[in-house]
What we know:
The structure holds 2 protein chains of 2 kinds.
Chain A: H1 19-24, H2 29-36, H3 39-49, H4 61-66, E1 86-91, H5 101-107, H6 109-122, E2 127-132, H7 137-152, E3 168-173, H8 183-190, E4 214-218, H9 219-231, H10 233-237, E5 247-254, E6 260-265, H11 270-276, E7 286-290, E8 299-300, H12 310-315, E9 324-329, H13 334-348, H14 354-371, H15 379-388, H16 397-420, H17 423-432
Parallel strand pairs in A: 1-2, 1-4, 2-3, 5-9
Antiparallel strand pairs in A: 5-6, 7-8, 7-9
Helix pairs in contact in A: 2-6, 2-9, 3-6, 5-6, 5-7, 6-9, 13-14, 13-16, 14-15, 14-16, 15-16
Chain B: H1 33-43, H2 53-64, H3 69-79, H4 83-90, E1 104-109, H5 112-116, H6 119-130, E2 136-137, E3 143-148, E4 160-162, E5 165-167, H7 172-183, H8 199-207, H9 215-222, H10 229-241, H11 263-266, H12 275-287, H13 291-298, H14 307-312, H15 314-320
Parallel strand pairs in B: 1-3
Antiparallel strand pairs in B: 1-4, 2-3, 4-5
Amino acid sequence: MPLTPVLTERYAVERSWTLAAYEATEGYVGLRRALQMTPDELVTMVKDSGLRGRGGAGFPTGMKWSFIPQPKPGETPTGPAAKPKYLVVNADEGEPGTCKDIPLMMADPHSLVEGVAIAAYAIRSHFAVIYVRGEAVHAHRRLVAAVEEAYAAGYLGTDVLGSGYDLEVVVHAGAGAYICGEETALLDSLEGHRGQPRLKPPFPAVAGLYGSPTVVNNVETLASVPFVVRGGAAWFKAFGPEKSPGPKIYSLSGRVVRPGQYEAPMGTTMNELLEMAGGVRPGHQLKFWTPGGSSTPYFTAEHLDVPLDFDSVAAAGSMLGTTALMVFDETDSIVEATLRFTQFYAHESCGKCTPCREGTYWLVQILQRLVDGRGTARDLDLLLDTCDNILGRSFCALGDGATSCIASSLKYFKDDYVALLPADERDRLGRTLKLEPVGAMA
Amino acid sequence: MSALPGSTEGTAVTGLDSSPVEPVAADLPPLTEQTRLECRELMARYPQARSALLPMLHLVQSVQGYVSPEGVALCAEELGLTKAEVGAVATFYTMYKRSPTGRHIVSVCTNTLCNVLGGQRIFEAVKADLGVGHDQTTADGSITLEHAECLAACDYAPVVTVDYEFYDQQDVESTRELVAALRRGEKPLPTRGAPLTDFRGVSRQLAGFSQHADAEAARAAVDGPSAGVPTLVGVRLAEERGEAAPPMQAPAPAPTPDVDEPRAATRPTGRTGQAPEKEASDARVAAAGNPAERAGAKTADPDRKGPSRRRTGTRATGTDTPATPAQSGSGEGPAPSTSPSPPTAQREV
């Protein structure tokens, strides 16, 4: 696959973050066109484009928008349809390995603002919030400036571009909690509470912000929308596979020669991306990598030709996630990497659900003693058993994500764990090790 | 002031534990009527006032350097909540500090990817230099140190932030120098981000207010560098290889004349450097439909302003920061020096 800069194309434009530069590169053309369409036509167009959410789950964006209950013509709306609708942007990027949205918001904040305006119009919302990760201060500042410019130019506010449509947009800073990247935790946080996930259903589309119908979309998803509107559904579908099309920002990091942002069609393989990034650093071999951040099961050298799209990665046993491709080589300890990720989940578990709060704590203890050479023969099974007691047993996906690196590292690199055991424990291992796959007990 | 009815004097208000409140620093600036009015301004921005709680906590932190019992009380009073309710929120988020912070907050990423490339070594070295641990402040009040979870800059690993501005591709020595400079009262420029102010200033920004005295300083902050080699590596490589996305077809029904703007002239092909912006700028000033747009269009003139000059020499930006080998690009593999198109070198690096 070739490189296909679409979302990243403006990154190299002089002062790309300004309205002037944005307008000079067909900025807000999509919004003008969208305002000529009906909201329903827009929803259909985005559905037809096949755009799927770029925040990790890959849910079809147009379908998400269509779930918002709308008043039926000629009827007095009741229930959720009668309530105000909200659009909330999930700009709380923090999944380890993920570094695509913050560069986008810094380099091209107006593409997000335009996407917000189009999406809000499509779901008939008059109030949108961009919830930006608190630590992302430069992205926050660029967004605030972009929103101000957009108001001044008539792209936001009362009577957007003379269309009669009103839209208020607030840029809201978080305060350092990974869990707020989970959409319902984000909504709780936005309502001024601790960021803890809600039980679903009801889904945000019915009862989201302030109990009203709400769409929560990721930054890259919304930044794709102006291009869908400008280029049309068929153009967008020309990138990559039928069922998960579009240009995608792949973020390579770690042991590659040229880490960074590479935008290519969905379905590009790691082999192709490694070639672009100059390969693994000279003299070393790739050992393991994540296709989409720390919550996605590891891949190995066997998976370099898996097309990196939602369905192909799932079929190969992992998840596309946020296409955060962290590359590790033979000098990196997979058990230690896994310990670090697990420490992260233990720190970021919001504490609401016992399996996740307690389970991540114990996983850290077990991994730590393995890394310290104090592990026991039982520990490998104990890790998987603990994972089994977390997976699928908490409100949100944080706990599930915490088990991914452990289960997949044991699947592919069991020997690395065994090598860390004291000799006498290693001898006992043959008699006890079961290594049942995680999920078998669920 | 106490945390819960019946608890003893000096019990933490912001904590769930009953540890005594640290003695209030003598020079702690008071929360004023102005702070209260700003809280109300924040509350008015949302359909429901409580949505302003996180911004309000950033705000009180921007005045006092941490979320003090007084700050919690102010938020509670304005929102009609109990102090316990506000304390419960404040303690959930790591960016709200529960004891006075230093002038700057230095965060070292020690998550997996940065760690593999040396993040933990950096943290240990800085810890030793400063004589403080995680979430602790130096005695001179210059620096609060913390190890951070993933800062979403893995392509620039290992990363350090000061007041949340990025200092990319650090190593032990570069970070030690950075921290030493901060302690001397210097403000080395970040590789990505605005010129440093201080922790309180950036907290004010996060609350949703400008932290700058005038528009020029605010603009300079917005215009701080943002795109280093890793951000641009894909788009530069595409240019070098002549690869691009499939072209968009002209729209069948052209809804407004605006969309028929000369695409060839305005599209950032990346092959003409900054010229398209200038061309398009002129075209747009002419085509702009209203005064606001026209004003916006005028600012498009790429030759108009100074800050871009500052950025065109990234190396100049870099010289004020501690000299890191990585910052000169050496750690990043070859910049596309073989690029046939000289103007690319003029763009932001």
